[in-house]
Design goal:
single chain, 209 residues, mainly alpha, Rna Polymerase Sigma Factor, Chain: A, Arc Repressor Mutant, subunit A, 9 helices, 67% helix
Length: 209
């Protein structure tokens, strides 16, 4: 039997697929190197989103517990870290949602009307809504990075530099029709890449951060 007490310098050289298979077959020790390999990345990921060290540590443990419990159903159709990453994001969202629900507003002390208060809630989205928005924007950026160079250049100029189609055409010395075509194919490709995320499925192309 292989020694699973592997030093940190060798974690990146692990045969992750074999360790996952061994864990699925009941070898509990085989999961330990996987935890050591990813625990700091998962902790950093969670902390950046909730801003609480102690809660991030607790959630990190929760993520690996849920991963351990769900691992028998992991079909290896996605990169393992992408699968683990999504568990961490879901735990972060659940945590922020619970925090929001625990807030008690002393309504009798509010100096604003009910309509104003509802408008304030609408204007200021909840923490988990902000997190989901930031997460989706991040994934759009990651997906755009995998576009062909020509499409990415047009995407960048349109949505990062906020140039008009006419300005992009002049900048790239191309017709406006060509720019519109690039944008059409770019939008379609990004929709296809991000559709699994919107359907709560895993992104096979995404390796996480």
């Amino acid at each position: 039997m292989e020694n699973t007490l592997i030093t940190s310098t060798k974690l990146n050289d692990l045969d992750e697929d074999k360790l996952i298979t061994r864990t699925q077959n009941g070898d509990a020790e085989a999961f330990n190197p996987i935890v050591r390999k990813y625990q700091q990345r998962i902790y950093n990921l969670i902390y950046r989103r909730i801003g609480n060290h102690e809660a991030a540590e607790d959630l990190c443990q929760e993520v690996f517990l849920k991963a351990w419990q769900a691992l028998p159903g992991f079909k290896k159709k996605s990169v393992f870290y992408s699968w683990l990453y999504q568990i961490a994001i879901n735990c972060s969202i659940d945590f922020l949602r619970k925090q929001k629900n625990q807030i008690v507003f002393p309504c009798e002390k509010l100096s604003v009307s009910a309509d104003d208060f509802l408008q304030m809630l609408h204007t200021h989205p909840s923490p988990h809504e902000i997190l989901e928005k930031e997460e989706f924007e991040y994934l759009i950026h990651e997906a755009a990075g995998q576009l062909p160079p020509g499409q990415y250049r047009v995407f960048y100029l349109r949505y990062q530099e906020e140039l008009s189609i006419k300005e992009i055409a002049a900048h790239l010395n191309k017709s406006e029709g060509t720019i519109k075509t690039h944008l059409h194919y770019t939008h379609r490709k990004l929709r296809n890449m991000l559709r699994p995320y919107l359907q709560n499925e895993f992104l096979k192309w995404f390796n996480g951060i």
